[in-house]
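request received
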Amino acid sequence: MTRWLRLYLRSRRVPLATAVSIGAVALIWLAWLAFSDRSEVSEPLTILTVVLGLAPLIPTLAGDDDALESTAALPWPPRRALHLIACFVMVTAALAATRPTGAWFGPTWQVVRDCAGLTGLIGLGVALAGTRLAWQLPISWTALQVVLGGPEEDWRQVLYWLVQPADNRVAAVTAVLLFVGGVLAYALRSGPRVAAAEVTMGQ
Amino acid sequence: MMRIIRTELRRSNALTLALLITAVSVAALGTSVGLWREQWLRFTYNHATALFVLAPLAMAGGAMLGRRERRTRVEELIGSTGRPSWQRISPTAAAMMVAVAAAHLLVFAGGAIWVARNATYTPAGALFVPLTGVVVLTGAAWLGLAAGRAWPSLLVPPALAVVGLAMQVALAERTSDPTSRLGNLALVPQPQSYDWEAVTGRAVLGHLVLGAGLAAAGLLLAAAASWRPRAAAGAVLAGATAIAVIVPGTASARYYVDLDAQRLVCADGAPQVCVTAVHANRLPEVVAPARQALALLAKLPGAPKRAVEWRSDVVYVPGSDEPGGFRAAPGTVQFQLDQDGGDVDPQLVDSILNGAGTTYNGCPRIDEVAKYAAGAWVKGTDDLQPADGRIAYGDQFHAEISDTVGKLRSLPKAEQIRRVTALRDAAAACRTDLLPILTGGARP
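response:
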């Protein structure tokens, strides 16, 4: 099993992606530690840090040749679901670990919610459009929320779920639905199949 | 050349990028429809602010296209063709430009059709703002193209998008400081406060230079094979950024009062009711309450014969007091219309009667109890509910008004009229300490 795991992680280029992801979070953390006189990182930057931590992990959600991988007689759906959940856990842990330090990211529940919802969005994006385009929806939606959103009322909170306070029920439900939907969708489908000719090009 | 560009448009991610930009731009505009659908100046602002997310997305889109040659391992093959590198890169760059320009201008055209149906004032300069946006988007896409050619990793496009976004958020925080110049680089500047405030040519020029600098640097870096064009790209980018920071001036100099937008448009019939050209589409709704208020005010001697919309003579600086605006001409009562594009306030009559018609006469707003009481007396009620979005007074304030009006009504009729008229004339002359005039504590 450990041998399989090592090969799997290498085939998905996880080591580099993890380094970039953790490095990006660490960079923001260091910058805030050095340049800000407040200890709690501002809300827009916290949300962007979650995206920055998750974005490098998107290319790991597909291998070089899905058609070849799927011929292996392995139960892929639970493995894919675990992979996505591991991405969520890793980024959440990285942000939550800053809690005792001099520069910490947002209320922890808010970080967990944002990270879960965005992970789900990425899973949905990969399942529907593939790893190359999956970043577009999470990043566009996050950007619009960060700049246009505020404390909204009733159903509009769904559109601006990232910028609601930590105890907001609508935002929490939205994030949970996105997470569950994303994990299920990615478990069932790893994305559109790339044509064999393009696989060899590695585009 | 045209044939290659057409092929690039079909075979690259240009269409995806154009669709993404269109969708995000429509979503951003959709959240503020009520604010911009009647005003060109507000529409161009809201359309342009989507650039803060569109520019990072265009950069990521460029990076997706730029990595093509190295990822497919044909760079040596293509490099062996007997053409200078800028000739090889230009059809790809042109395809990116066509995609972002088409998407940005298409959304503008779509919104413009709607605005043109509602707007009553069309500033010609507004049409230049989306062209600035096209230049900025092209610059971002070309810079992304260069980044994609340098680092063909799958990580680069999303990373570029988020980093660009983080820079925008950091810069946007600088725009709230009226003396800061760094905020000039932010693609989301402070919005205009009044509908007649137009963006200055220098501010538009700043973004134009920034976009042109990004585009030139992107093209140089994408075609560069040696350190010289790379150094030139750095110099161009630094120069353009410096110009974009310095030329528009401080954040408070971003807007100017467009006197054409403030030109008065009057309704037919008497008494005359006028609003500014930017609000002329609300004139039919305003006429009836304004004439009703003028009729009520006519019970005082020397009553105004004309009602016009209040206009500010200066640009509002966020965080400061509301400016007094132009002084009311003799025989004219001024009223204020909402600046947020909503319907005309149902309490417009009360707003005009407040202070017996002296609330928006260009003086600082003081002595609200006396002004409310005078308005309530004119209206024949115990209290007044003018539309006052900025101030909400407590119960004690309104009790004080009812008390003042009650005492006033207990006086002989002629004395009541004399005191309210005296208050009106004192307020029109910008005098303070108005309450004693109504209560008889001090006789002018």
